[in-house]
Amino acid sequence: MQMHSTGSRIRRAGAVVASIAMVAGGLVVTSAGVAGAASSSGSSCAAAQTPTSSELNSTTGITKNSVTVGNVSIISGPVPGLFQGAPNGVKAYFDYINSQGGVNGRKLYVKSFDDAFSGTQNQSESTQIGNTMFGAVGSFSLFDNYGCNVFANNPAIPDVSVTLDPGTNALPNVFSPEPLEQGAPLTGYKFLKNKYGSAIKHVGNLVSNTETAIANWQGQEHAMQSLGYAFPYVQLVSPVQTDFTSNVIAMKNAGIKMVYMTDGSWQAYAALAKAMALQNFHPILFSAGPIYSQPSQFIKTAGGAQNVNGAWLIQGQSLYLGQDASKIPAVKTFNKWMAKANPGYSPDLFSLFGWASAQLFVQALKAAGPNPTRGKVLAQLKQVTSFSASNLLAPANPAKKLAPNCIMFAQIINGQYKRVAPTSGSGWDCSGVYYSVNGPQPKVNP
Description:
Rossmann fold, 2 domains, 16 helices, 3-stranded parallel sheet, alpha/beta, disordered N terminus
C-alpha cells in the first residue's frame, strides 16, 4: 500500500526528524499493510539478475555452530535511535530460538549496521552483509532502495525484511512479512460504514504533506471511494504541525462527521484530538498505528482520556504491547523476550517488524534442513504463502507478495485500549479484500 517514485527522500528529512512517529503510524496505512517512503532520485533499483548454481549453493555466514545475518537500519543521524527497534526485534527472536537450542544445532546471531540516514552507507553495508553473512533479516530504513541494487545484483542473498521501496519489494530474493501494495483493506471501511451509515459521506482527512503520505492517500482514497465514502474536507498539513485549531474549525463548519489523518504521528493525532475538544467538536475519530504506538503518551498529550474516548484503532497488527496477551500467546512471548534481549527498551512497531522478519527467516531456515544454503532457504521462503508471526500480524503472503486483507478493531475506552472485534477465532477479520489502486487483490488465507 504504498509507494510511488518521486523526488528526493532528503526533502522529507525535516519531517522525519521532527515527527518520526509518523513512520510508526504512517507506514501502517489505515488498516494493515506497510507504506513506503518515496523513492530517492539518487538511486533506482537494478533489474534482478539470475542466480548461478554457485551462488545458490553458498553457505556464507554459516558454520557448524552458527548462522550470522545482518540488519541495516537507521540508528543514528537526525533522530538518534530512530529504528533501533528493528535489530532489537531480530535479536529478541533469535535469543528466544537460541534458548531452545537454535536451528539444527546452530545458534543465530544478527550483526546490526547503522546506515546513519545515508543511502550510500546503506548500500555499502548491504554489500558487506552479502560478502560476509548469510543474508539480511529485519532491516528497516528509508534508504533501502540503495541496498536494493546489492540484492538485485546478488540474487541468491536472502533479504527477509519489511521493505519500504517497491523496487526492493519486487525482487525475487526479498520476502516481507508485510508486503507492499498501494491501497488498503476494505474490511475496516466496511465496518465503519455499517456502524455509522451516512457519516461516511462526511469524512475529513488531514494528509501529511510528504511524498509518501500523498501516495498513501491516493491508495486509501481509491479504497474508500469504492465503498461510497466522500471527502468534503481534505487538507495537506505539515507533518510537524502542532496546532490544528483552524483545521478543526473548518471541519466543524463543513459538517464533517468522521476524521482521519494519513500518516499522522501519534503527536499529531493527540494535538488534533485536543483541538477538537477545545472547539467542542466531537466527530468519529479513527486511526491505524499512531494512536497505539505510544499509548500512555498519546492519551496524556491529547489532554486526557476524555478527549480520545471512543477513538477507533483499526490495524493489521495485534495489540502487541500486551492487551492481546490472553488471546494471542505470541504477544506474551514477544514482550518477554524483548525485555530479556533489550533491557530498558520499550517495544515498538519496528521491534515487531524485526521479530516477525526473524520468525519468517527461521521458519525457512528450519525447513531448509541440516545443511542449509542460500538457495535452499530461498526455495523455502517461496513456499510461505501465509504468514502472521503467530498472529502478531494479520496474515500476508510473502511468497506472492500479497499484502494483508485482515484487520482487527479496538477502541480507547476510559483510557484503556480494548479489543472490540474479532474476539474469537484467529483474532482477525478477513471478510474483505485488499483494494489496490490496481484493483482488488486475492484474499490471503489465514
